[in-house]
Design a protein that fits this description.
Length: 322
């Protein structure tokens, strides 16, 4: 799996730079990240401000940082496009209201190819960031949902945890989509011979119940598809994580690596708790979350994100836009 430093180096070598819109341009962290992206030739930042009075002179005077001030911005084209996209679900009056919100402007910039990707969430909830993306940018063909992943990193260990942030209790069919999105993400990061474990409190029928059936059915659907990766489940975390334990608890398991690349959690409770345990007790760095399944990249920040968190997420968001 590519490291963040390798991804950063790849971005620096790109002759054509991608643009990333930050709807929270008033944030000092965002402004610092924008300057870093420009200084290190990683991407072209677009900062949104509610008022032209909010734009600091050092941003205003930086010709490589584009700014859009909503108090000076004509939203008519965006409002008309929003009404078309919503297909009768929004009036022009509703469109006018939502186009006063920076996240909606940002999502529309991406939709209309005036920006390549978007990053928000320092001062907004996940719903405030993702809702405009779903309404305007939409999900990729073949997918009915978006999902999220964290890259859990410690030394030479890198794992993908999904879905820890978006889908509360996914159906079997949704777990299939979540797995496939995570596999595509792993391949984009140069993971070879991808393996995914679909987690449960049961290993290969050792436990019973509706939640076990939901995961088991997802695995059956995945195994029936033609694919170039390995998936297995339902399986408990200890058996998935360690091959010796797996060999005892799950005979003829198709997972061959010591530890699989992807851990698919059965619901948001397990995923959210799981990544935080790995982060706090296991000493893993949680990079993300990254939103998967959208037509163009939009990512959500934690409201407690630091400069380094935002910069790393911006780098990954730009990388995914190529």
């Amino acid at each position: 799996m590519y490291t963040l430093e390798e991804i950063k180096n790849q971005l620096g070598l790109k002759s054509e730079k991608k643009s990333i819109v930050f709807p929270e341009g008033e944030s000092e962290i965002i402004q610092s990240v924008a300057k870093t992206l420009v200084d290190e030739k990683l991407g072209l930042p677009i900062l949104l401000f509610k008022s032209s009075k909010e734009v600091p002179s050092e941003i205003k005077n930086n010709s490589s940082i584009k700014t859009i001030c909503l108090d000076e911005f004509d939203t008519k084209e965006f409002e008309e496009e929003f009404v078309k996209l919503r297909k009768g679900k929004a009036t022009i009056e509703v469109a006018h209201q939502v186009m006063q919100l920076p996240n909606y402007i940002g999502a529309m910039l991406v939709k209309l190819n005036q920006a390549d990707c978007m990053l928000s969430g320092l001062n907004n909830t996940t719903a405030d960031t993702i809702r405009p993306a779903l309404q305007i940018i939409g999900t990729k063909p073949g997918y009915n949902i978006a999902s999220s992943i964290f890259v859990m990193s410690k030394g030479n260990e890198n794992y993908i945890f999904t879905d820890c942030a978006l889908n509360i209790k996914p159906t079997s069919e949704q777990l299939v989509e979540i797995t496939q999105m995570a596999v595509d993400f792993a391949k984009a990061l140069n993971v070879k011979n991808v393996e995914a474990a679909l987690l449960s409190y049961s290993t290969n029928g050792s436990g019973k119940g509706e939640d076990v059936d939901r995961v088991h059915q997802a695995v059956e659907i995945l195994k029936s598809k033609e694919k170039d990766y390995v998936c297995e489940g339902e399986i408990q975390f200890d058996a998935a994580f360690d091959k010796k334990t797996r060999d005892k608890k799950f005979k003829n398991c198709s997972l061959l690596k010591q530890t699989p690349d992807i851990f698919v959690f059965p619901d948001i409770n397990a995923g959210n708790i799981g990544y935080k345990i790995a982060q706090r007790m296991g000493g893993f760095e949680a990079i993300g979350p990254f939103v998967l399944g959208l037509n163009q990249p939009v990512n959500d920040l934690s409201r407690g994100a630091t400069f380094v968190d935002v910069l790393n997420t911006a780098i990954m968001t730009l990388y995914l836009s190529y």
